User: Fold these one by one.
Assistant:
Number 1:
Amino acid sequence: MQYNYDFEIASWMVMTVILLHFMFIRQFPSSKARIFGGLLLACMAESVFNILSCVGLANTALVPDWGNEMLAFAFFAFEGLTSYLIFRYFMEVCELGREGTQIVRWIGGLPYALFSVLLIATPFIGFFYYFENGIYYQGFGAAFGYFYVGFYFFLDGVLLFARRSVVDLRTKIIMIMYAAVAIGMIVIQYHVRGLLLTSVSNALIVLMIYLSMQNPREMIDSASGIGNESAFQMQLAHVLSRKDAVHVITVRFAKTERIHAALGIGSSNELLRQVGLFLLHLCGTSHVFRIENDTFSVLVPAPAGREVQEKIRERFRQDWRVQENRVMLYMDMVIQHYPEDFGTVPDFFGMKQFLFEQAQTKGSSAVVEMDEALAKQYSRRTKVEAAMLGAIRDRNFKVFYQPIYSMREKRIVSLEALVRLNDAELGFIPPDEFIALAERDGNIVHIGEQVLEEACRFLAKHVLSNASLGIRTIQVNVSMVQCLRQSLTETILPVLERYHIPPSMITLEITENVAVSTPELLQRHMGELAERGITFAMDDYGSGNANCSCLIQFPFKEIKIDKEIVWASFENPTARMVLENEIRIIHGLGLPLVVEGIETAEQSAAMEQLGVEYIQGYYYGRPMSETECLRHIRQCNVVPENYAR
Ligand code: C2E
Ligand code: CA
Ligand code: CA
């Protein structure tokens, strides 16, 4: 028969280009990359032997029979190998774990072993093919080849289905396309017998894999030439699936902006490259990763963990040379242990962030190693986070109200809305604890919306309809993250409209440090809302970096003095002086003033002496549920007959 192998030659050329690219662009040395390299070479060899066989069979005068028999044998050998290697590649993609890998390797290896035995027997029994008078004939077992390929399709499909949760959509599409292309080629070849298409389907699958799953740029950080975050995630998943005990040491550089500014971006990149090289020499290529701009992680087998950690610390005690500059690099280091501390890749990342937050509270060049106490804190934090997410989803937050008492009017004039979270397992979770977490991940926006909605509902149902209660406003806390949102105005006003609440009945409390860190956006948002009649209170004045300029810069209509300062003023004459001066300034500006944290009659009297008009504290009422609060106001605000509002 005359064979047309033009497509084989074209496919071989395509695979050669892929091979050259694969060899010259640095690959992250993973087992996936090694199997891909093997697959590429096997496909190319299959293609070459296919072409040579055709040439040999067409030129029997030039090629001896034994030569043609050897070429056919080699072609079959590589054909068997490519199906097996494609299967092995997908096994890597599916991250099967150590036991899973063992079992699947056995199941997947058996057909290949059987194929090899039958191929070795073929020259003697004519299983796949036989030659007669120098002419090639299909053997009695030729159909086995189709079963063989079909079996691997089937196994690939089973793997894909069983591991569908870890395999991403792109990979699933590639695997399905591979099956479709291969089946299409088989059908065409069946109908057009002389047309050889084996290499076309091989070249297509290799190209699809190379462009999607094996793209080297997706694994290598271009600036430092070492593995990036994707490579790290892949390698960590691999280590976890094998259950190898490792220490993950992560270093993050502090004050890198200063270095960028002092050295210029080129030299500071050179510096990071040097750090990468140092870590590479210490731990080996497949163990070092640049997972963020200024963060490197190294994976170290557990027994060597301590030694490597010491060597890294030792190196960072010395300076680094970049051109003629000598630079000290400050870094925080966190250490996590597998399997003691974490079990999954997302677990690792959550814990890493937590450990770096701990490191930040310790000052510069901190080393934080996961231990039992930290593990407990982290576990509490993840539980609190889960409880908070559940409450956001189920709208399960409660809002309590704490009275703000007017010393002049001798009654409660407003309420502060304070969010409450009770969890079935953890019990009461203080807002300070979950608000900080919610601010970190942006969920505070949802909490804020729910609290505002709840407060408006309360106002509409009880307070507005019951004017004799004498409540003028409800004060709602607004966090920094909400202030940064472009849509602050759009999220607040519609809620008020829905419950027909006059904007003048809502005061938004903003903490002082918010006012300092985002001046322009905050000014705009406050301006927009103030125009509609909403008022603003500066919360926790005197805590953190007191900054009187905020009082000038922003349209605050009320100041709330932080309870810590108030408490300190009863203990310490200097704090007392500070408080007195603060009160004088605020009075001078003509702004109403609320003092927080008043717990006793003496404290209340002392504040009255200082001319404070509004008081919030346990002495005048703790935060209370709606019903309790209404009862409390009714008791407190007994309006005298001749009282004129
Ligand atoms: P904050 O805004 O300064 O709220 C006042 C806190 O002081 C409340 O704590 C209140 O219970 C407490 N407090 C009031 N008077 C006294 C007193 O006499 N003695 C003592 N020991 N404590 C007193 P709470 O409810 O635990 O809230 C803590 C913080 O959580 C709040 O401080 C606020 O920053 C935040 N927060 C509460 N609810 C919300 C909310 O809905 N949104 C936002 N963004 N933050 C909230
Ligand atoms: Ca507040
Ligand atoms: Ca406060």
Number 2:
Amino acid sequence: MSTVHVMDHPLVAHKLTIMRDKNTSVKEFRDLVSEIGMLITYEATRDIPLTTTHIETPICPMEAPTIAGKKIAVVPILRAGLGLVEGVLRMIPSARVAHIGMYRDEETLEPHTYFCKTPKDIAEREVLIVDPMLATGGSADAAICEMKKRGCKHIKLMVLVAVPEGIRRIQTSHPDVDIYCGAVDSHLNEHGYIVPGLGDAGDRIFGTK
Ligand code: PRP
Ligand code: URA
């Protein structure tokens, strides 16, 4: 069974509250997605291996810790996942970016994939799939399947807000994929929206409503 890492941090809780407020502007919402993305990346990379390198500080020589050069790909689920990419790249500047285009049918809530472009060596990379919302879990489930089809073996899922329904779906379909999230909300409403949630993340990031 995969692990769910819920961010237990006042900065994340505070920033999410501003995002949840329906009066928050598009610009502020977008900035906050990116900032929380950066903070969750901190948690999602806690287990990346370190090696040492020889340096000289102004005081003395030292064998100092440095990241072992693990290859990482961040995979935003379009559109809303794009909002998280900047924050992840600020923490992991050398990461490659793969895009997966997906939308949820408003009636059936089933995901439809319309685009997928990955680096050639995606199978050798640690993959971090990012999307602000884990609702039914259909989109994340399908995105994980796409990455597995391409040979990826080490996959993590990072979201801002999840609900138990979506978490259960991912844990059942992909027990090897850990989930990192900013908060776990109560439930889905009859339209498949997270309650209390933050509304339609894509529309709020891109100002399309
Ligand atoms: C939203 C969100 C997720 C999906 C979550 O995208 O960004 O991708 O819904 O719902 P699920 O867990 O039930 O699949 P949407 O389909 O609205 O597309 P958009 O990003 O283009 O707005
Ligand atoms: N997608 C969103 O953007 N918001 C939700 O609450 C659920 C799915």
